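We emphasize that the prediction below concerns an isolated chain of 128 residues; any contacts that depend on oligomerization or on bound cofactors are therefore not represented. The input was used exactly as deposited, without trimming of termini.
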Amino acid sequence: MQQHAKLIEGSKKIEAPTDDSLARIGTKHYCLITRNNSVNITEYVKVEDGNIEMVEMNEKGVAGYRYTLKKISPEQTKLSIQMLVKNNPFFKMAFSISMKSKMMKRFREFFTNLRGYLKKAETPELSI
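Result of the prediction step, given as a token string:
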């Protein structure tokens, strides 16, 4: 969460929540995908061997995300993100008309920035 401004182009430098522990139900945190520094609330967390699932919704409960991490190998993890929209025909229609392409672009930008950030953060293996 501390790297939010580096991962989202156009996001403002924000004061991040001070609690760095794992996400817990009811915790509030800044959205990693949107540029408007909106606050999301963790609604569901499930941690199992090799799998983590987390659902977060915005404060109004209109939209959110479901993140799933699945361990593929000791070096690889599969991340999937589903965008959730309130089960209301008006919200679904408004989302598909005005927001869907914007959100897909933001997802692509986020993952491009994340990939670059992770490459910079990699430490070369030491050989003795």
